[in-house]
């Protein structure tokens, strides 16, 4: 098991202007980050440590920003902490003297602790959920990895909040003006071993690709080929390398390992926005 300690709200440096009560966690903070969220890239590098950060909250207790105030020494762990806390942490808001909910802030410390022997290389799964607005901008992102493999959870589309999507993605959204959610499931089966389980949408993926490659004893990708599905780039630009040629994996003392990677993308449309009656009848 990966040991992780969450210490929320420690050493509050200042009272938020206008607030007489502080924000308090809603639900179970221990469930906001789990053992499965430890970035595999950090595992391989044996990275651990405490991240001190501050969440800015709106009047509904929803995080609007996260700033690292003391690094763990690992950029991956720092970024992952803020990404997960913004996506999952929710609070009862701060209140002013009149009892009105106001914006506030919440400092916290999160400690990532690695046990011995957790740098294995086995099957893993990368999951990304992206929200796109009706006008074609990336409005939210939640990413995590499961299993003992390579993690891209802190990069890619999660670093492009507010950016416009491609024309191909806009075409998939349609002209209703409604937003949508894209779920990306990237499954890596190593040496035929089972991948971690995840619930998949009932709908068919709008994009799917399967590749096979080997990782040699030095950690280099070899013998890479397209095994099925789309050969073209995906509409979100997530599958950057057809065969992950730009990645270097950990050395494999036991010899060559074979990897089969399948990327599946699912689209769920949001209901169209309500029509303004003042616009008159639709022709």
- Kindly name the structural category: mainly beta
**Low-confidence spans: pLDDT under 50, at least 5 residues?**
10-15
Q: Tell me the number of structural domains.
A: 2
Label the overall shape: flat
* Beta-strand content: 35-45%
- H/E series, N to C? EEHEEHEEEEEEHEEEE
What is the share of helical residues? under 10%
Radius of gyration, in Å, reads 21 Å
Largest sheet descriptor: 6 strands, antiparallel
Distance between the termini: 61 Å
Number of helical stretches of at least 4 residues: 3
Let me know the number of strands.
14
Structure write-up:
There is one protein chain. The chain has 283 residues and is mostly beta strands. It is 9% helix and 36% strand. It is built from three helices and 14 strands. The strands form four sheets. The chain has a six-stranded antiparallel sheet with strand order 10-9-11-14-12-13. Strands 1-8-3-4 form a four-stranded antiparallel sheet, covered by helices on one side. It is flat, with a radius of gyration of 21 Å.
